[in-house]
Amino acid sequence: MISQKVLFSPIKNKRTFEEISVKIKTLIFKGILRPGDKLPSETELARQFKVGRQTVREALRLLEISGLITIQRGSSGGPLIENTILNTLSNLFLDAFQMRTITTEEIAVARLEIEKAMLNHIVKNADQSDIRSLRENILQAKKNAAANINPYLDNIQFHKLLAKASKNQIFIIVVESMMAIIGDFLSRLKPKFEHSRKVISEHEGILNEIIKKNTRKATRLLEEHIVNVRENMLDPSRTH
Amino acid sequence: MISQKVLFSPIKNKRTFEEISVKIKTLIFKGILRPGDKLPSETELARQFKVGRQTVREALRLLEISGLITIQRGSSGGPLIENTILNTLSNLFLDAFQMRTITTEEIAVARLEIEKAMLNHIVKNADQSDIRSLRENILQAKKNAAANINPYLDNIQFHKLLAKASKNQIFIIVVESMMAIIGDFLSRLKPKFEHSRKVISEHEGILNEIIKKNTRKATRLLEEHIVNVRENMLDPSRTH
DNA sequence: TCACATTTGTCCGTATGTATC
DNA sequence: AGATACATACGGACAAATGTG
Question: What structural domains does chain A harbor?
Fold first, then answer.
């Protein structure tokens, strides 16, 4: 007798855990399962799909790594629908960087172009909340620099906030990912407070032009700024 | 008495399979394991790490989904170091789209800006091989359209080839990812051969300006082209 | 073509860790 | 503090896939 399985999966010999993962994914994409919903426990899923627990585990692992669910341990725990794709994407970009698939030079070029292209949309779409966050970011960076705390994380945050103000998820994802790489890189550099102060004041200048809705001047300042940062990154004073 | 565990694992309580995954990842990032190298079999890895085979499997699953290894079944199979991050990233963007994290409107805006920004670099960096691929792509698209085969895959490929010609991995990754979403979207549209022919002729015009190194005109044509495509995508004649 | 060895895929039973109530 | 419910992890077993002689 011909196995039914062959009839139902005509081309590819997908692994069982992949099929289960796809089924759950589809439910999520169709909106039947929504973020915040809890999935049944591993044992229960295994019972319902009529497969072993190990198979369910690998399916859940796949969904977890893809950023669609998180898994809580302990009583009343279990798989939870939660969208963490943004994080997952940043981590993957970081992997790509460490695999030498991406170089710092490529990031320098790409971020210059992409952040410049973003500016139009930032000037158009930024609301009061965005401006407030950007202002607070600069204050925080200044405070840290004054206290001899390396403000590079604040300075990276500034660019993430810019992307957020564009209200475009693609820009947000790409900038977050590039900044994850730059942050990783800068974390290995000796802090240079002189340079940091310059960076902060450049950020301030850019923000002021955005508030004035002067896209042209904001673009010029951003361009100068990113070129400066790039030169600083090329300076080979790595700590390790 | 204060638990030693807290002292020695300060932040995260990582799961065993995650630790194993990180160890293997580190070997790859350090270049000790290179693409093409084979990892020991699951049983062998379990023996070396002194853990169960299931734990190793979940660690390998993690690496597989992260795009660092592939896994072959059968004799002389096993885990193989292979960089498939580009694919993985595209798939994640597709997930983000289906999770409604990204909308078609956002893609339309972002691709217009990013592809325009790419043009300078394409004109500067494209070599003969790139130009040849782009020419062949247009020929192929024409051939398919003439044979009443929907050439949307060729037309998507055109933009991927443009990104490739920029010689910047970030552009390549971002464009490939956006095109994965657009391709998924178009695959559900009824073929419109009239529109396809227009698309192909617009591609041809853009390519000619790139060859002539006329960035300005290429930019104008690209802008018009993407606006046209966007309008067509907004047209709600979905097949399903 | 066939048999064989190797390796992944899947399942079961059991034990332990962990978070909640 | 104890009971409960869940994920995590281990070991053993067999099935399925795949390359080799």
Answer: 16-83 (1.10.10.10), 86-238 (1.20.120.530)
